Amino acid sequence: MEVGKDALRMQASRLHTNGDDYTAAVERLRERGGRWGDDGLFAEIEAAWVDCRQTVIEAVPGIGGTVNGVGDGMLAVPRNIDAGEDASAMQEPSAWQ
Length: 97
Prior knowledge:
By secondary structure, the chain is an all-alpha fold.
């Protein structure tokens, strides 16, 4: 079985970019605030927006963290393969020395 180590590294990097994008999106949402100050026609829409915004602020960081965790795992695979290959290439000391 062959594992494309470079491909894994590249895809892990892409996952980290996506995870960081989730985090950045939540930060932008936090900065904007929640209320528009409307007490007329859009008051109900504003209330729904505030609820949805809060749900996103609470849920999305977990998604970003999970995506980054998968990327970390993908980066560990090539490191483990390299370590295994290096270990198997080492000469064992002679039992009679």
